[in-house]
Every structure is written in C-alpha cells, then in structure tokens.
Amino acid sequence: MLTVDVELKDRKYSIIIGKDLLKDVESFYPLNSGDRVMIVSNPTIAKYHLSTVENTLFKLGCHVDHVLIPDGEKYKTLESLNLIFTALLEKNHSRDTTIIALGGGVVGDIAGYAAASYQRGVRFIQIPTTLLAQVDSSVGGKTAVNHSLGKNMIGAFYQPISVIIDINTLNTLPRREVSAGLAEVIKYGTIFDVQFFEWLEKHIDKLVSLESSLLIYCIERCCQLKARIVAQDEKEHSDRALLNFGHTFGHAIETHLGYGNWLHGEAVAVGMLEAAALSYLNGDITENDVARLELLLARANLPTYSPDGMLSKEYLPYMKRDKKVLNGELRLILLKSLGVAYITTNISEDKVVQAIDYFSQL
Amino acid sequence: MLTVDVELKDRKYSIIIGKDLLKDVESFYPLNSGDRVMIVSNPTIAKYHLSTVENTLFKLGCHVDHVLIPDGEKYKTLESLNLIFTALLEKNHSRDTTIIALGGGVVGDIAGYAAASYQRGVRFIQIPTTLLAQVDSSVGGKTAVNHSLGKNMIGAFYQPISVIIDINTLNTLPRREVSAGLAEVIKYGTIFDVQFFEWLEKHIDKLVSLESSLLIYCIERCCQLKARIVAQDEKEHSDRALLNFGHTFGHAIETHLGYGNWLHGEAVAVGMLEAAALSYLNGDITENDVARLELLLARANLPTYSPDGMLSKEYLPYMKRDKKVLNGELRLILLKSLGVAYITTNISEDKVVQAIDYFSQL
After folding, report:
1. Which of A260, A359, A343 minimizes the C-alpha distance to A306?
2. Under an 8 A CB cutoff, do B118 and A154 touch?
3. Which one is catalytic: A49, A123, A151, A240?
4. Do A119 and B320 touch (CB under 8 A)?
5. Which of A120, A143, A237, A243 should be substituted to probe chain B, the one whose Cβ sees the most B Cβ atoms within 10 Å?
6. In chain A, which residues have their Cβ closer than 8 Å to the Cβ of B241?
7. Residue B211 needs a FRET pair 20 to 30 A away by CA distance; which of A180, A192, A332, B41 works?
8. What is the ipTM of this complex?
9. Reduced to 3 states, what is the DSSP secondary structure of residue A303?
10. What tens digit of pLDDT does each residue of A288-343 get?
C-alpha cells in the first residue's frame, strides 16, 4: 500500500493506493465504530463493489445507508444531486454523517458536491473506481454538476477526508474507460514531467493491459503531480489551471455531442492534440512533439481526430462559455515544450480554428 | 453612515449602514468600472429598488444584468437556484462576475448559494431590504435553499465581499415583516446582551414605527453582536449555534404549516418563548424573565402562541430532523439568564412537550 499526502492550507489528507483495500477496515480511517455513513454509487458499480464496502464498514461498526444515482455523465445534474439529499433526509442523517463516493468521476463529483452542500458541509471519502477518477477527479476537491448550458458550471471546492484507490476495481472496468483514464495520465507527463512522458512511451502497452505494479506506480505519480499543484493553488487562481490542458477544446466536443457520447477522456485526448497543434502553430513546440503525443494517445486506443461532422468553427461558441474565459477573452493552456505548460490569453480565434483543422490538413 | 467590520480567519468585509446608500456609487466599493454584475431580486423588491441600484452601477461603469426569482420562502428551492444559473450562463457571465442579492432573506440565501456554487464560487454583495435580513441573514455567510423534507438543508458557508444596509428600504416593507425582523433583534438581546434587551424594552414602540436614528443604532448593535460571534466561529462548531435560539422550535412550526404561512420571524418569536419556557422548567430563568420576553414580543406585534391546531407532540418529529441534532439527540439552546444562552443535549422529550404547552397552561 502506497500513500500520497495532499497538503492544504489548513489541513491535509491521504490518498492510499493498493490492492484489496476495500476489504480492509484499516483503509477506512478515520471512520469509527458508531459513525453514520451514506454511500453514493450507481447500479453498475454497486453490483461489483457495494457489498464489499458495506461489509467492511459493518465490521468497523458503522451504520451504513446507500443511495444509487443513474449511471452516466448526462445524469450529473441537480436532479441526481437532489436524490442524494432526499435519501439523507429520509434516513435522518445529521451534519455528523460521512458521505462515501463509490464510483467514477460522475459519482465522485455529485457525491462531493452533495457533501459540500448537505447541511452546509459534511465529511466526505472518495473511493474512485475508474482510472480517470483515480488519477484525476478524486484528487483536488473539485466537485460539480452540469447545467444544460455548460459542464461543471455548478459546484464547490470541497476536499475529502481521505481517498481510497483499490486497483482491483479496474478489473471490471470497460477497456474504453481504461483508455479514457490513460488520456489524463498522458496529460500529466505532457504538461508537468517529460521523464514521466518518456516512461509512458515505454510502458503504455502494459498499462493498457493493466499490469498491477506499473499501474500502481503510474497512479501514484499522477496523484503526486496533482497533489503538488493542488497544494500550491487549491482554488485555481494560477498554476492549477494548467491541469485544464486540452479541456477547453474537450468540453466543446462533449457539449457539442451531448454529454455521454464521447467519454471525457476521449474528448480530452483530442483536445490535448488540438492544444498541442496550437502550441506548434504558435511557435512553441515542434511538429515531432505533436506527433509523439499523437502516437502515445493512439497506442492507448484513444481518438486523435475531431468527431465526425464537427466543424472547427463550431468549437468557438462552446469555448467562449468555458469557466477559464476571462472577461470574454479565451484563456488557453499551451505547451512551451513537452513537460512544460503555460497559460495565455493572447491567441486569436483564427489560430484556434487553424489548430483544430491541423490534423485534417496533415 | 456607520460601518461594522466582520473579521474572518482569512479576510474581512464591511457592513455599511445608513440612509440613501443605494444611490451612492461609493457604497458599491470594491466594484470597479468594467466589472460585470448580476443582480438577483424578486418582482416585489425590484419594483421599488432595482432601477435605483442599476442606475448607480451604470454610473460606476459596471455591466449590469438582473434575474428575478419568485417571491416567498416556498420558492427557496433548487429550481429557483437554477433560474439564476441559467441567467448567468445565458449572459455568458464568467467566474469574474459579481452576484448582488437585492432583497430579503430568501433572495439573500439563494443568491448567496448561487454565488458559492456558480463556477465553484464568484464574488457576492448583499443588499438586504428587510429588517430581518439586515440584522440576521446578511451577516455571517450562511446561504441555503430548502428541501421538501427540511428547511435550509442544502447550502454553503459563503461570505460576501460587502453588505449594504440602506434603511430607506424599510419604508416600503409591510408592517408584519418589520415585526418579524424585530423578533431577531429581540433574540440578540435575549441571548447575548441584557443591556440591549433593556434598551429594547424602552424603545420597542419607536422601532415599530421605524424611527431612523434608533433603527440605525439597533441594526448596528445586532450586526456587531452577530459579527463578533461569526468571527469566533464561522462554521458553527460551537458558540455560533447560540444564534439558533428558538429556531429548532420555530423551524418545526414553519415546516408543519408549510413554508410561507407564518413568517420566519413569527415562528422564531414563538420558538423563543418555548425555549424560554423550557429554560424556566429546567430551573435556569424565572417566570418573570419569560413574561418580560413575552411582553416585548407582543409589543413588537409578534405571535406568542403555537399556531392553531398544532399539538405540542407534533413538534418532535420536525425537531429531530433539525441540523443541530447530534447523533440523534436533540441539541437545544437554553437561557442561563436573560442575556446569557447555552447549548445542551441533556433535555428529555417530555420536558420539551411540557415547555410547548407552557403558554396554554397559564
């Protein structure tokens, strides 16, 4: 079992990473006998893991309830959030309760926002069950639901008291979702750590086939990189925004297609390539850097082109509605080199369209 | 113009109190020319004050939008909250926007929660237009919406960047709402400051008739008392809970009748009397103390009895669902003496029922 500590301004919490953690009462520190717990999950994940988690919590002496929300990004809504509040109120959960998110990014984001909001804040534990959630959404305290006019527009910065990453949960994950998780893994190398990028170029095939020891190292490294940046900038006033590399483009794809048609990681893969192409057109990185990123994503079985029929100029209205927009100006993350990212507002809309067209022009 | 500073752990903000403040660009510090603003109000208040505020903000050079939510406690819901998000997104407001709450407690609570949640937090200014909101809900950063199973169950602790209290807004306030505000005013004296209680016994009639200089002193004193307690305990881990004096009983009344039938302050008035009766039955205060409180509330034109047909035992199920419940035990605020309150969990349900029956037994 490995531990990554996330140091925040006023407290810290631990991410534990390993195998068989969900069966082990020790994983659930700091819960105690007598504590009340509400597990939030979805039917797909509950089938595999709910009874395991419940049994471990029973052994610990907790009073456990659960509520299931529908599976999928399109249910990441105020309505699903309200299902959680209703369950908490029907079972008379007080502000001393703990909400446990058991699932992927959608469950984590909604359950986290429910924890931030229920009675103005209760304790929260994350058990991310997808690779994407393990390396990304479970670290850093961003919680949210979607609005029909934009993704993640409603939410809170709210930190868990602990995160439990059990790689056993990846065995039941669809291959396509493993790949989507690897998109975010590749992002960390691309924006923060060229050595990790090179490590990924060497081991990507074994990660695709879920080799345990490599997987644990990979998750640990991503959590370390994310924990470092979150510690520096919890509320995304500066460097934390670098983590949005590829996301402004990616959100445009997701919104255009309707949530849930492409997986988030798939949209981010293409978004990263478009941001890399823009960095190249802007004179920052080489064509070869773009090609290396493209190859790595392709080996992870990720898409490397815009969705069929989505025109480059169709990205812009969505991109302008992005949270990273500052006084109406696009704020984009570009690459200075592989492993080094920066934020800029000084990019014309024409150049953005050119970058989106880059791959179809090759 | 008077100023009360609220000192928080990591920053402070000011409450300014006076006449004609809404017409004065200086009131709107720290807004600047070029800033975007979304005013949240309701049709009743907008009719009287929206154009005044808009004109002052235009003079300052701000870009101003507004959104109206339906008037009344029963609309303090996730649905009304979503109206605000939709308006913000339709007008492309970014995370640099400022939300201004122009209205009473309902508008302030919803708009504040919208500010806490929109893009995970934007700036927020309160312009409370009711006496209740001026002395209570606009100080301290509690924001929330209701759930059909309980009041204020969904929300956040979120502090404004400033609060503007213009007593001109009280001239158009229905008399019943002035009285409801005086219930909270009387609460401050009752739980924190026996001298202020005595001042109120002397001046309550002039407050009922809105005499300006007395009103400004009264609001200032309440804001000072509340600011002091919020500075000590922003998230209500200890002493801030004293402010809930009468509220556990009062919420039971409001929930039983359905939101909006009694005003919050009216329910709190009766709730305070029931809590005072409980303090007397518990051996803490004298019958005369209870009678002084009853008389003061009556002079402020507030109800002093349970609603018709609401049985004392009907309070308990609602009270047990209150946020102040700790592991299933009722947590109540009682009086040690006039001006001194304390929190206890050591009260039997029988005694609670007796206290509710106290007034019908006299």
Report:
1. A359
2. yes
3. A240
4. no
5. A120
6. none
7. B41
8. 0.86
9. coil
10. 999 999 999 999 999 999 998 899 999 999 898 766 665 667 889 999 999 999 99
